[in-house]
Amino acid sequence: MLMILLISLSISSCKELEKAEYTNPDKVKQKTTNYTSDQHPGKKLMVNKCYVCHHPTTENKGRIAPPMVAVKSHYMTSDITKEAFANAMWNFVEKPSKEKSKMRGAIRRFNLMPYRPFVEEEIRQIADYIYDFKIDEPEWFQEHIEEESNGKMPYRNDGKEVKSTASDLENTPAERGLEYALNTKKELGKNLMGTIQKKGVKEAVSFCNKQAYPITDSMATAQNATIKRVSDQPRNSINQANSRELEIIDKFKKAVALNDTYQPVTEVKNGRSHFYYPIMTNSLCLQCHGTTSKDIQPEVLASISLLYPEDKALGYDVNEVRGIWSISFE
């Protein structure tokens, strides 16, 4: 959902048998859900489209937006129907404004949510999931909302609560890889969005140049994995995809062009799992990766040219494959 931050890594060759399997991303499970919750399309959409800013585990002091459970608490009333709940969420997200917001405190702290061209059907699926299921929340949230509102705002996280089972804890390589990718995306996105909100897009280019690598390396160390983001059109030449990664990028591009459901790829080499997943562009990405004549401000383009003299990462439109996550782990 953000400007693409590319981290390089070479994949070693091997003589042993290589196994590859293609896993439908809609079937990738999360640790804390069972089949009913996990297969709801709204959950995957919420994780991929909302958690970059609204993640439940981000510390309160370091947040750039409220957790999704705060959104639920403000929009959920004791007598609201699912349709009305979804209508209220879409009414705000379609064109955010202070007048339509139900979260005045969040606007005072984080400013108004910037406009993004969300798909109405997807927002309604997210709302459907939030309405039906108890969602993940920070440990501090219930006490926080009651104190901040002086008891006027009730804590609401209604819905079916799904507990983990033994099978939920036995993640496949595809599930582990997706978890590592989303965790890293969240950390990069949180810091990047904070920079954009406080200092603007031009400073975000400098942030990517100086901080993206250390943040990704720290996430790789914390998760005991090797994590990189590579492209066939890299901003920095050290992020150039290797031959195998280029093949996978091409597969994803063809799938997107045909409007097919793209699939994460997992391969096992010498006992080590390799995970590949596409990085898709959105409207926010275009501020640094779009067309120079209409999407990128002159001062931003000048900063890109100065910091990345060999830049190839321009000319993208929304919903295009910008590159891939390439992650390996034991």
Describe this structure in words.
The chain is an alpha+beta fold and 330 residues long. It folds into two domains: 19-28 and 171-329, no CATH class; 35-148, Cytochrome Bc1 Complex, Chain D, domain 2. The protein contains 13 helices and five strands. It has helices at 35-38, 41-49, 51-54, 68-75, 82-94, 104-110, 120-132, 141-148, 173-199, 201-222, 243-257, 286-289, 298-307; strands spanning 19-22, 226-230, 265-269, 272-280, 321-329. It has a five-stranded antiparallel β-sheet with strand order 1-3-4-5-2, with helices on both faces. A hairpin with a 2-residue loop joins strand 3 (265-269) and strand 4 (272-280). Helix 5 packs across helix 7. The longest helix has 27 residues, at 173-199. The protein is globular and about 55 Å long.
What is the overall number of helices? 13
Helix content: 40-55%
Quote the beta fraction.
5-15%
Summed over residues and divided by their number, the pLDDT gives a mean of 83
What is the strand arrangement across the widest sheet?
1-3-4-5-2
Query: What's the Cα radius of gyration?
Result: 20 Å
Estimate nothing, just give the exact number of structural domains. Answer: 2
Distance between the termini: 28 Å
Uncertain segments of ≥5 residues (pLDDT<50)? 1-35, 164-169
Q: Structural class of the secondary structure composition?
A: alpha+beta
Largest sheet: 5 strands, antiparallel
Order of helices and strands: EHHHHHHHHHHEHEEHHE
Number of strands: 5
Shape, please? globular
